[in-house]
UniProtKB/TrEMBL annotation:
Gene3D superfamilies: Metalloproteases ('zincins'), catalytic domain. The keyword Secreted does not apply. Residues 73-289 form the Peptidase M48 domain. Pfam families: Peptidase_M48. The active site is at E141. This is Protease HtpX homolog. InterPro entries: HtpX_protease (IPR050083), Pept_M48_protease_HtpX (IPR022919), Peptidase_M48 (IPR001915). Binds 1 zinc ion per subunit. Its EC number is 3.4.24.-. Its cofactor is Zn(2+).
Length: 298
């Protein structure tokens, strides 16, 4: 789908590379497990069914988990109005609009394609941001939809489940009850292979997630022409999230990869390698550079 969002060849290349590497990784993984235990076939079938369900119904699953509900233009005229303007500016289909009743200020986009996408904002972010800041956040989320990285992340983030699922089924159903002397060696081998596969897929997915957030920031800032508004929204949302009790944030942490700002964010340290989002400072520095390029005042 061609839109007026600035193309990002770096993002496209990373999505293709990540998808290829993950696919290759899991083909090798499944092949090794089939050699070790036939029960791996059961895991592959189950994981495949779950992956299909998550991909096809990702929008419904996300809304249900976040207690979100679809709203009409009559129910949320200002929100719809901003999204209408941005979609016209970007020349892209309008996604389904939803609101989640949550105090945590955030937003996310989900769906298997631009024509089946959902853009959801929390009541917390609607209360805290002004019109320009909200426009920047919504443009950021629309960029994810236009670049199709939402669907790629939905698939990539799920693939790690296969390693653990296959291992459990193998241990319980295949050689877990075997009295053969080689059973222990086989079990340890499966666990080791599974751990390596999970670790590699984890780091590949997290690296893609961090880059796509920077890409969405760039695209949104250029489309709206107001990088400072998006920077202000980032600063405000991150500050407000920091004030929310950790217990409440952990309940939403599973959606970190899809949020505008992470529920729990690491600092500038080795932990950044495990993060779904780049550090706030890096995002703000990038937006400041775009503002200078565009000659934005204030």
């Amino acid at each position: 789908m061609r839109t007026r969002f600035k193309p990002d060849r770096g993002l496209t290349g990373r999505m293709l590379a990540t998808t290829f590497l993950l696919g290759l990784l899991y083909v090798v993984f499944v092949a090794l497990l089939i050699v070790l235990t036939k029960s791996a076939l059961v895991a592959v079938v189950i994981a495949g069914a779950l992956l299909f369900s998550q991909y096809w119904f990702s929008d419904r699953i996300a809304l249900y988990a976040m207690h979100g509900h679809i709203v009409t233009p009559e129910q949320a005229p200002e929100l719809h109005g901003v999204i209408d303007r941005l979609c016209a500016l970007a020349d892209m289909p309008k996604p389904t609009v939803a609101i989640a009743d949550a105090d945590m200020p955030n937003a996310f986009a989900t769906g298997r394609s631009p024509n089946k996408a959902v853009l959801c904002v929390t009541t917390g972010i609607l209360r805290r941001l002004d019109a320009n800041e909200l426009e920047g956040v919504l443009a950021h989320e629309l960029s994810h939809i236009a670049h199709r990285d939402v669907a790629v992340m939905t698939i990539a983030s799920f693939l790690g489940v296969l390693a653990g699922l296959t291992t459990r089924i193998g241990l319980w159903g295949g050689f877990g009850r075997s009295r053969d002397q080689n059973a222990t060696v086989v079990a340890l081998t499966v666990v080791l292979v599974s751990a390596v596969v999970y670790a590699l897929s984890f780091f590949l997915t997290r690296a893609l997630s961090r880059y796509r957030e920077l890409s969405a920031d760039r695209a949104a800032a250029i489309l709206t022409g107001h990088p400072s508004a998006l920077a202000s929204a980032l600063t405000k949302v991150s500050g407000e999230i920091a004030r929310i009790p950790s217990r409440d944030l952990r309940q939403a942490e599973a959606f970190n990869a899809f949020f505008f700002a992470p529920a729990l964010a690491p600092g500038l340290s080795l932990s950044s390698l495990f993060a779904t989002h780049p550090p706030l400072e890096r995002r703000l520095d990038q937006l400041a550079g775009i503002a200078r390029e565009l000659g934005e005042q204030g």
